Amino acid sequence: MDYCAHAGLTFLKDSCWTKIFREPGKSASKSLNLEALGSQTEYTRTKKDQQSLETKFQLYTDKTEEGCQILFNQLETLDKCSFNASLPLVMIVHGWSVDGILEDWIWKMAAALKSQDKQINVIIADWLTFAHQHYPIAVQNTRHIGQEIADFLEWLEESIQFSRSNVHLIGYSLGAHVSGFAGSYISGTTKIGRITGLDPAGPLFEGMSPTDRLSPDDANFVDAIHTFTKQHMGLSVGIKQPVAHFDFYPNGGTFQPGCHIMHVYNHIAQYGITGITQTVKCAHERSVHLFIDSLLHNDKQSTAYWCNDINTFDKGMCLSCRKNRCNTLGYNIREERLPKSRRLFLKTRARMPFKVYHYQFKIHFINEIQGKQIEPTFSISLTGTKEDAKNLPITLVEGINGNKTYSFLITLDTDIGELIMIKFKWEGTAVWENIWDTVQTIIPWRKGTRRPGLIVKTIRVKAGETQQKMTFCSQSIENVHLYPAQEKTFVRCEDRFRRQEK
Binding positions for Ca(2+) (predicted)? Predict the structure, then answer.
């Protein structure tokens, strides 16, 4: 199969970058940008001159997967479909389409939105005719569909006094930008209530101005979840840059557990269309399932934390909720307009429910072997009031040298309750013991003194979800030395955390 002849795979194969996205003498990221998107000014309002729209607006009911179609400018269809003007409206906007049919996740999300007695109208915006095209053409069509959604919402407002502030658009991939255009095209000064972008599409949108993509200005509140921003040939399937008031980057936004993302492009080359369903769909669509998860598991809402980058987050340095530094991922987010986009990070499991519990561990090591850097690995076991977590591996990103505090992040799949005891083990082996003995013969010390090792006096812990800070001290005050293959027990002691965070 010629990938370039098949819609959508065009932006994933090297030869297609050249053929589709790159003009002679231009880089892939700079050609076909504004040309493909079109200009915002070229879309003029046409609703007064037409009686129908290309987009199909299907009101979701529990009885059928087809939904009940509401026809633009036909008030009787609102009654026929039992649209309730006193309830909020959530509209699901799908993305670019490979096969021209509505994907299963759409119905799962619609059902989840209606679950647990949520009193809302759920409409599916079906723009398959315009989405089932070559990717650049589908990109070009996003403005037109955004205009149609804006027209539809204005019609609701004018005909039945349904306020746009009660509208929540949920757009996936290209649908995220469609939602953004709908928000920017709607007339008047009042904005749509909320837009959620689920891994907004990257190619032909990355680096564009706010008027040419989803942006915080498109609604009273905008949130986005980025799950597939791994770059290839300078572009990624999902947009990497912030596009919302709160931008969530689960697991850094590039890799999602269980998706085997490193092999994605090989899979596409080998399996063709089934390759994209096996790999790209997993990471890209994870944004959708994270959102559905937030609807289905009220007791397991995932918390994300403001941080500069994933490397800093992986050290556990960003687990603060002070001054709105954290927020809830998904439907139940705390809506707050910010002057600047805020990037939030979190870890998740590979499957639903995705929630994990984040902990920062700060351990102060003293390496008694002067001038000798060691690179041990450790494991840690936690005892909580509800459950235990055993043999969690810890690998330091740098060796232990001298007198220094190390910080790292640990995540747990289950809620262990309040932490009451820690067992910390140096995962030494026979080889380590031999090296240690050799070091001791090379570096002499006074007769009768203890052999040099690592000194670990305290372990400081911060629980992200509860914001609780704890200090643990060595159970044996006289024996604070740690050697290969040895395990030490630490118990709660005086809280020595600084009261004020930087």
Answer: 213, 218
What pLDDT shows up at residue 483? Answer: 85
Exposure string over 418-451, b if 16+ CB within 10 A, otherwise e:
ebeebbbbbbbeeebeeebeeeeeeeeeeeeeee
CATH of domain 357-492: 2.60.60.20
SS (H, E, C) 420-451: EEEEEEECCCHHHHHHHHHHHHHCCCCCCCCC
- Distance between CA atoms of residues 340 and 346, nearest Å: 20
Q: 222 near 214, Cβ under 8 Å?
A: yes
Domain 56-346 class, CATH top level:
alpha beta
For 170-213, how does the pLDDT look when each residue is reduced to its tens digit (9 = 90+)?
999 999 999 999 999 999 999 999 999 999 999 999 999 999 99
Task: Examine the residue annotation and report whether 2 is marked as an active-site residue of this protein.
Answer: no
Q: Which residues of the chain have pLDDT under 70?
A: 1-51, 63-65, 116-117, 261-279, 370-371, 397, 429-450, 495-502
Considering 97, 168, 184, 199, which one is annotated as catalytic? 199
Q: Given this model, what pLDDT does residue 447 score?
A: 45
Which residue numbers belong to the known binding site? Answer: 213, 218
pTM: 0.86
Helix%, strand%, coil% for the chain, nearest 5: 30, 25, 45
Q: Which residues are annotated as a binding site for Ca(2+)?
A: 213, 218
Is 267 one of the catalytic residues? no
CB 88 within 8 A of CB 192: no
CA distance 21 to 232: 13
| Catalytic residue chosen out of the listed positions 134, 144, 168, 284 | 284
Whether 173 sits among the annotated catalytic residues: the reply is yes
Check 173, 179, 302, 474 and give the catalytic one.
Answer: 173
